[in-house]
């Protein structure tokens, strides 16, 4: 049975007893996998918002989880747009799966980039056992962020965003590539106010973690590491996020922040990397001036704050 006319079907449900209504919804949900009918699944997700049924919801969730595992992440994400509660469950499960895979890969001790991977004899390693799990779950989160809209902003737990971060330092190229796409999609969604990351009360904010766990961690390696250009791209996107003055003050008054940029500008890098470092420098200084942040560190001294500009105008 396929829900092709949601409005008419709702009228029919209104005329059924509670028992018959639940039975009809469960029949639809149980037949989704055999039919592979994502249009019906999307309609059912919306209908279950008005006619809740735990059993039908569980069947629908199982169908979507199986779909994600089979590589139909975008279709599953589209269905979830009609059910915030199901979306939350699936995102939490994706995050849990990623965390479990991260723990297992860390025990392998050779799945993430370290200085040793820059050795001339380095060869990429991967774990087929976890690669598929990682990619399908990152793919689901990627599509959720891409499909998010500022008309209905999506609130997500910081732990969900955090579960993506380790894969920005993974050696296996396909997992790294989709992690990069996912974090870029998340940062873009935050910028357009389609996603709101709910920070954990005790601990660093998501924006702080983006800097320390992603950008900063990559730059702790040499600029010859394979993810150097990605770190620069993330840095630019990070500066486009809404950043509170306190975080900007701490970051811009860190010697390491400007040291990385100066090294990127004057060392022997490719033109695109130099251009990115120059753009980051200009954006950082502009933000400092805009937010009236005085920068006093070894490499940069910026006293041209709004207050200083006002005094200058008075003198003129």
Task: Write up what this structure looks like.
Helix 12 (about 230-240) packs parallel to helix 15. The protein contains 16 helices and 4 strands. Mean pLDDT is about 80; it is low at about 1-5, about 115-125 and about 310-315. It folds into 3 domains: about 1-80, no CATH class; about 85-240, no CATH class; about 245-315. The strands form 2 sheets. Strands 1-2 form a two-stranded parallel ribbon. Strands 3-4 form a two-stranded antiparallel sheet. By secondary structure, the protein is mainly α.
Key terms:
3 domains, two-stranded antiparallel sheet, 4 strands, 4% strand, disordered N terminus, disordered C terminus
List the helices and strands and how they pair.
Elements: H1 6-14, H2 18-30, H3 32-35, H4 38-50, H5 54-69, H6 73-80, H7 84-108, H8 128-147, E1 154-157, H9 158-162, H10 173-191, E2 195-198, H11 206-219, H12 228-239, H13 245-252, H14 255-266, H15 271-290, E3 295-296, E4 301-302, H16 306-315
Parallel strand pairs: 1-2
Antiparallel strand pairs: 3-4
**What strand order characterises the main sheet?**
1-2
Question: How many beta-strand segments?
Answer: 4
N-to-C CA distance: 79 Å
Rg, Cα atoms, Å: 24 Å
């Amino acid at each position: 049975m396929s829900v092709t006319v949601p409005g008419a079907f709702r009228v029919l449900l209104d005329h059924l007893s509670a028992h018959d209504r639940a039975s009809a919804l469960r029949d639809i949900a149980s037949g989704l996998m055999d039919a592979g009918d994502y249009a019906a699944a999307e309609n059912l997700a919306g209908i279950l918002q008005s006619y809740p049924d735990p059993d039908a919801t569980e069947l629908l969730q199982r169908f979507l989880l199986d779909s994600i595992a089979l590589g139909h992440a975008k279709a599953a994400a589209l269905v979830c747009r009609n059910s915030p509660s199901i979306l939350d469950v699936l995102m939490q499960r994706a995050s849990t799966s990623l965390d479990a895979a991260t723990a297992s890969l860390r025990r392998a001790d050779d799945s993430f980039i370290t200085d040793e991977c820059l050795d001339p004899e380095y060869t990429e390693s991967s774990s087929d056992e976890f690669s598929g799990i990682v990619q399908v779950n990152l793919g689901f989160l990627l599509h959720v962020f891409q499909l998010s809209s500022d008309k209905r902003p999506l609130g997500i737990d910081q732990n969900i965003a955090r579960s993506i971060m380790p894969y920005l330092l993974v050696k296996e190229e396909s997992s790294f590539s989709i992690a990069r796409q996912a974090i870029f999609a998340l940062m873009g969604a935050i910028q357009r106010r389609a996603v709101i990351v709910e920070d954990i009360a005790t601990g660093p904010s998501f924006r702080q973690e983006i800097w320390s766990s992603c950008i900063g961690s990559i730059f702790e390696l040499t600029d010859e590491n394979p993810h150097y250009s990605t770190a620069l791209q993330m840095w630019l996107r990070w500066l486009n996020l809404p950043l509170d003055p306190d975080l900007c003050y701490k970051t811009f008054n860190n010697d390491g922040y400007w040291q990385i940029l100066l090294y990127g500008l004057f060392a022997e890098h490719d033109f695109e990397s130099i251009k990115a470092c120059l753009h980051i420098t200009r954006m950082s200084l502009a933000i400092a001036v805009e937010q009236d942040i005085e920068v006093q560190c070894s490499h940069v001294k910026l006293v041209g704050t709004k207050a200083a500009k006002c005094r200058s105008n008075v003198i003129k």
